Amino acid sequence: DVKQIVKEYCILPLGSATVHRSAPLIRSVLLAGYPDCGKRTLVDAVVAETGSVFFDLSPTNTAGKYPGKKGLNMLVHLVTKMSRILQPSVIFLDGGEKPFYKKVPKTEKEDNPKLLKKQLPKMVKAVTPDDQVLFLATSENPWMGQA
């Protein structure tokens, strides 16, 4: 059951520091499914139930807002720093496959979906067992990304 898995892997570790310390470290979770099947509702439920701070790094949300390498580095630094200070935190990515596209579709070129391709794996690996930070992504086409 999806709701049970979301409770065990997302809500319990973020909602309780004791559970977080004793449970295995879960840095990231991908919710994959058909369009409009409730993935975003589950994300909103995780954030609401845990009282987490929500950081949305979706390509449509970051498009054109952090130009150049300095802007990108500042975005990554701020999100990493603030997510640790304001724990528990959820760093969300709508379209989890988009930064890892093999070829960006013409309709999405404006959003620059590959902006965080190099930074995302580094950000996920930087989460330590002391951090109540979860990377949560949704995807309709997980096979579109490359490993």
From TrEMBL:
SUPFAM superfamilies, sorted: P-loop containing nucleoside triphosphate hydrolases
Stretches assigned to the ATPase AAA-type core domain: 29-143
TM annotation in the entry: none
Pfam families: AAA
GO molecular function: ATP binding; ATP hydrolysis activity
Top-rank taxon, per record: Eukaryota
InterPro entries: ATPase_AAA_core (IPR003959), N-DRC_Component (IPR052267), P-loop_NTPase (IPR027417)
Protein name in the entry: ATPase AAA-type core domain-containing protein
Organism for this UniProt entry: Cuerna arida
